[in-house]
Amino acid sequence: MPPFTTLPLIATVTMNPTIDIASQAQSVRPTHKLRTFAERQDPGGGGVNVAGVMHALGGQSLALVMAGGSSGRLLEELLQERGMPHRIVQIPGRTRTSHTVTDASTGHEYRFIAPGPTLVEADWTAMLDAAGHVEAGWLIASGSLPPGTPENFYAQLGQVARRRAMRFVLDTSGPALRAGLAEGGVELVKSSLTELESVVGRRLPDAAAQEAAAMEIVRSGRARLVALTLGENGAVLASEHGTLRLPALDVVVNGTVGAGDSFLAGMVMALADGRAPEDAFAWGIAAGAAAVTVPGTAKPERVTVERLRGLILVASPGE
């Protein structure tokens, strides 16, 4: 496994963090008062989740987080309890909460996600300023933008990263994704199929279409690497060397929360360690697969990621 303890600092930006509350119910039925059990609370939101996985795997991460109100104070307390390095950008609004309830009788997950507080210009510009004062090798922008944040916020954040000589990684959706890529110069963009279709403006019904669309983004200079995650259908990497498609690993699924964030954490940590994109891609797949073996919002264990990585055979470019 890459010597993650020697990596350069990797910073993450979370504009719309959440307190993730995960629990189980014997069964989920409408109109009934449902008693839950096995509840856990975790700091969440895209960048927080990515930083949390990096921390669990032994990496050096710094989470830049917008937070406010009593729930924001709880979020900071949860970050401190987990020993996660972080910086809070205070806002007047109240940090959101999200709920995941697992029906124990069926194994089905029900996820309820709030939109988050409405920001004003002073709020989101404060995050740009905070990012501009970070000494890091990589900057990961992950997650949704809360109401009141301009669609091109991540494009502006990418400009900050480039001025600071940080490699910029993007994982979001909708207009924020399209605007963030339009600037160009993104080191890595992680995308789902729906998100990739949104960027290229067309349906991608088969493997050939998906790979062509990913390469389109690379060749246009919008991103050096594109990682397309397809759930049980595996994942695709596009780079200057072409495309690589790897199948999903066969693991026992105990939850689906955080698989994409874990994939991104594993891949970026390996890239930051100087690994070839294809090798880093395999580490991402291993971390994502490890994430679904644990319930709720729990983070994957390093030993599991290492074991799963050993199951993936990837040839280096030119081999």
TrEMBL record:
Any one GO molecular-function label of the UniProt entry: ATP binding
Residue ranges of domain Carbohydrate kinase PfkB in the record: 29-300
GO cellular component terms, semicolon-separated: cytosol
Pfam families named in the record: PfkB
Entries under Gene3D superfamilies matching the protein: 3.40.1190.20
Swiss-Prot/TrEMBL keywords: ATP-binding, Kinase, Nucleotide-binding, Transferase
UniProt record similarity statement: Belongs to the carbohydrate kinase PfkB family.
Protein name: Phosphofructokinase
UniProt organism field: Lichenicoccus roseus
